[in-house]
Amino acid sequence: MAFLTCWHMTDLPTEIVEIVEKDLKKFDSISQDSQILGDQVDKVIRNSKNAWIPTSHWISGWLWYYIDKINRENFCYDLTDIDGGSIHILNMVKVSFITGIRMQILITSINLN
Question: Structurally, how many domains does the chain consist of?
């Protein structure tokens, strides 16, 4: 039986993570408000922005290694590439009502064939 969610602990050095984070900031200028239905934007329900990173970007190839690895170890799908030639990056801003601290969460969702 395959797990629904898989984690792969990489022990990446902080410097590498900072490079990835810095490079992904280049896509902030093309990020758009996330929509909930059609073209509807509702920041109360979904306060986030998203962008699409082409598979020609180095981060896509780097992530593909882990996608393929987890797929071979768990799901065993016949994956050949990233659907649509791009990776969806979701940048959520959450405001904690208890502390008032803003937290940014980077989530990558991979659309697969």
Answer: 1
Q: What is the pLDDT of residues 101-111, one digit of tens each?
A: 444 444 444 44
Asked, for residue 6, whether it belongs to a domain, the answer is: no
Q: Would you say residue 10 lies in a domain?
A: no
**Residue 33 exposure: Cα atoms within 13 Å on the Cβ side:** 13
Please tell me what DSSP assigns to residue 103: E
Distance separating alpha carbons of residues 81 and 113, to the nearest angstrom? 7
Handedness of CA 93, 98, 100, 103 (dihedral sign): negative
The length of the chain in residues reads 113
Whole-angstrom distance, CA of residue 61 vs CA of residue 56? 8
pTM of the model: 0.66
User: Residue 104: inside a domain, yes or no?
Assistant: yes
